Amino acid sequence: MTSPRKLPAEGVSDGLPNPARLWAFAAIAIALTMAVLDSAIVNVALPVLAQQLQVDPATAVWAVNAYQLAITVSLRHRCSNLKRA
After folding, report:
1. Distance separating alpha carbons of residues 84 and 7, to the nearest angstrom
2. What does the alpha-carbon distance between residue 22 and residue 31 come to, in Å, rounded to a whole number?
3. Is residue 50 classed as helix, strand or coil in its secondary structure?
């Protein structure tokens, strides 16, 4: 059986206040939109990049995957540094 959920004590807030919560949500939504847009742009440009660099398509896909992985790792590192502060 699970224990009943405890409610927070009087006067204790749960997370950010409403105006800050809205700004935090907007910042996360914009960041996610930019990440998806960035990936879409790179994938649309992939055939031209492969042709201009004279590499086979599989190599170009690996390069794009490496780029997206590097961006993800750097964002995760940045977010973990913000979490500690």
Report:
1. 27
2. 14
3. helix
60, 50 in Cβ contact below 8 A?
Answer: yes
What are the tokens at 54? 């004279």
* Cβ count within 10 A of residue 29: 10
Residue-wise pLDDT tens digits, 15-67:
778 888 888 888 888 988 888 898 888 889 888 989 998 999 888 889 888 88
Q: What is the DSSP string of 1-46?
A: -PPPPPPPPTT---SS-HHHHHHHHHHHHHHHHHHHHHHHHHHHHH
- 14 or 67: which carries more pLDDT confidence? 67
Q: DSSP label at 56?
A: -
